[in-house]
Please model this.
Amino acid sequence: MSENEILDQIDEKGNVIGSAPRHVFHSNPNMIHGVIHCWIFNNKGQLLWQQRGKNLPVHPGYWSVTVGGHISSGSTPDETLVREAKEELNIEPKLIKDNYTFIKKYTQRFEKQTELIYLYYTIIDKPIEYFHILEGDVEKIEWIDVNKAFKLAKSGKKKTTIFFFDQVPMIVKKYFPSIKLDPSH
Model:
């Protein structure tokens, strides 16, 4: 993860209109860049939750998206998903390629940057020992019951990014109807 990595500048539909180093996008909310978010679940209905590295510049130590990353210039969102899953958690590319579901893309505006988020989910039935985290970027991961994760997040016992509250309920309601979310989520 380099602030000098070149990213494509895109419009709200994802069309490339230019390129610039990552740090330029992170200080100009009028320039849109692409990112991927992928939430991993298992067949027990548990979420593989990632705690971000404690030395990261944005949301250090927060619990967030299982796999996430910037779309490098010239890469597609699907290629980025496979690359980031391998980098962050050492997930074999074939396991991701054969199992992911694209949900939607949408624009998320922040004070200093604007992202076009490509949202995915996948099911991977592997024990926690299967995954090997990228030290520095990922502090730790754990399988957790979705309702327990919400309870911990709402109580403040686990700090989470907005993506947890925005994305997980939508994914669970649409793709995991057997998981009954507590109505307070």
